[in-house]
Amino acid sequence: MPRFPMIADSIVKQIKHKYQHLSPMLNERSRRLWAAAEAEALASLPFIVRLD
Predict the structure, then answer these.
(1) What predicted TM-score, i.e. pTM, was given to this entire model?
(2) Collapsed DSSP state (helix, strand, coil) of residue 48
(3) 28: pLDDT confidence band, cut at 50, 70 and 90?
(4) Amino acid 3: pLDDT
(5) Which of 2, 22, 27, 43 sits 20 to 30 Å CA-CA off 37?
(6) Neighbours of 33 (CB within 10 A)
(7) Radius of gyration over alpha carbons of the chain, in Å?
(8) pLDDT score recorded for residue 6
(9) How many CB atoms lie within 10 A of CB 11?
(10) pLDDT of residue 4
(11) How far is the C-alpha of 4 from the C-alpha of 19, rounded, in Å?
C-alpha cells in the first residue's frame, strides 16, 4: 500500500525532485518554510474521494 494513497505518485515525485535540488541550500528554518508552502499548495488541489 502506498504511504500516501491520496496523493498521486507524480505529485510526490515532483516534490521530491524539488527538494533534492533545494536541500543543499536550506537550513532548518527555510526547510520548514518550504515544507509549509508545499503543504499549502497541496491543500489547494482538488481531490476526489471514492467510497466503494
Answers:
(1) 0.70
(2) coil
(3) very high
(4) 56
(5) 2
(6) 12
(7) 13
(8) 63
(9) 14
(10) 52
(11) 17
Q: Report CA-CA distances (Å) from 52 to 7, 49.
A: 18, 10
* Grid cell digits, residue 25: 541550500
pLDDT reported for residue 2: 53
| 34 and 22 Cβ atoms separated by less than 8 Å | yes
CA distances in angstroms from 13 to 9, 20, 30, 42, 50, listed in the order given: 6, 10, 21, 13, 23
Distances (CA, A) of 7 to 18, 24, 26, 27, 29: 16, 25, 25, 26, 25
Q: Is the pLDDT confidence value at 34 over 60?
A: yes
Contact 26, 34 (CB under 8 A): yes
pLDDT at 41 over 70: yes
Distance CA 35, CA 40 (A): 9
